[in-house]
């Protein structure tokens, strides 16, 4: 990990987030000194520093390789969201927007659906969807790009996390006539979590671009706060899984047999201390659960049951 091999907390401040790019060659880190840093994943050497935020950077996210030219997003404690682009080895901020409260989520959807970014703030019930549009030269405006933001009210209170569903079609591993009639990709969905404890799944009609509430996994109410949600990567099977973690250390795996069926808790366990972040491996066989003091790696031991593999 870059955080262990090259990141100097005394010099850069607390490390709030770290993400690999889509091919695993570089990592971006979010620091409390307001700087985004790019690292070589192999050598652990710092490749670039991206100053631009006036507050601690809390979240970073890479765009899928196929959705260039935008490459990176970062969000800070003052609600500022910056979009970054690398040109001839130099990084530049190409767009800025603001969310209410602290930036708690900033994530690009899978490349199969085209360029779109979802961002959320801690004091807003909205998810803001950001898209890019090419502007044709006219007598009024020069040629260039335009960024469009469209909010969607997702909860009654501020957001704490969101995650896009994978794009893999449930019929990837199927054969025969049914596979030939199946869609090439899964429906566009995402899961969001709020400070009111609710966890909801949303689906987008790609023709009308309208979002609708599909399921509510956890209803709003009292109890331990939700800290993170993570949709499990799908390699082409009909079922779907979502991991949810809470401030008291509870981790839940929600499971859906196939699209249109109800969601249920497949299994749950406690890590014994606060759980803040979740991250799946690329194949979905490992789940990392991180807290303020440690990170634990879990592996599915047999159908639906998870066991700790190691502590990082």
UniProtKB/TrEMBL annotation:
<keyword id="KW-0653">Protein transport</keyword>
<comment type="function">
    <text>Component of the coat protein complex II (COPII) which promotes the formation of transport vesicles from the endoplasmic reticulum (ER). The coat has two main functions, the physical deformation of the endoplasmic reticulum membrane into vesicles and the selection of cargo molecules. It also functions as a component of the nuclear pore complex (NPC). NPC components, collectively referred to as nucleoporins (NUPs), can play the role of both NPC structural components and of docking or interaction partners for transiently associated nuclear transport factors.</text>
</comment>
<dbReference type="InterPro" id="IPR036322">
    <property type="entry name" value="WD40_repeat_dom_sf"/>
</dbReference>
<dbReference type="InterPro" id="IPR015943">
    <property type="entry name" value="WD40/YVTN_repeat-like_dom_sf"/>
</dbReference>
<comment type="similarity">
    <text>Belongs to the WD repeat SEC13 family.</text>
</comment>
<dbReference type="GO" id="GO:0031080">
    <property type="term" value="C:nuclear pore outer ring"/>
</dbReference>
<dbReference type="InterPro" id="IPR037363">
    <property type="entry name" value="Sec13/Seh1_fam"/>
</dbReference>
<dbReference type="GO" id="GO:0006606">
    <property type="term" value="P:protein import into nucleus"/>
</dbReference>
<keyword id="KW-0813">Transport</keyword>
<keyword id="KW-0906">Nuclear pore complex</keyword>
<keyword id="KW-0677">Repeat</keyword>
<dbReference type="GO" id="GO:0051028">
    <property type="term" value="P:mRNA transport"/>
</dbReference>
<comment type="subunit">
    <text>The COPII coat is composed of at least 5 proteins: the SEC23/24 complex, the SEC13/31 complex, and the protein SAR1. Component of the nuclear pore complex (NPC). NPC constitutes the exclusive means of nucleocytoplasmic transport. NPCs allow the passive diffusion of ions and small molecules and the active, nuclear transport receptor-mediated bidirectional transport of macromolecules such as proteins, RNAs, ribonucleoparticles (RNPs), and ribosomal subunits across the nuclear envelope. Due to its 8-fold rotational symmetry, all subunits are present with 8 copies or multiples thereof.</text>
</comment>
<dbReference type="InterPro" id="IPR020472">
    <property type="entry name" value="WD40_PAC1"/>
</dbReference>
<dbReference type="GO" id="GO:0005198">
    <property type="term" value="F:structural molecule activity"/>
</dbReference>
<feature type="repeat" description="WD">
    <location>
        <begin position="50"/>
        <end position="84"/>
    </location>
</feature>
<keyword id="KW-0509">mRNA transport</keyword>
<keyword id="KW-0853">WD repeat</keyword>
<dbReference type="InterPro" id="IPR001680">
    <property type="entry name" value="WD40_rpt"/>
</dbReference>
<dbReference type="GO" id="GO:0090114">
    <property type="term" value="P:COPII-coated vesicle budding"/>
</dbReference>
<protein>
    <submittedName>
        <fullName>SEC13 protein</fullName>
    </submittedName>
</protein>
<keyword id="KW-0539">Nucleus</keyword>
<dbReference type="GO" id="GO:0030127">
    <property type="term" value="C:COPII vesicle coat"/>
</dbReference>
<dbReference type="Pfam" id="PF00400">
    <property type="entry name" value="WD40"/>
</dbReference>
<keyword id="KW-0811">Translocation</keyword>
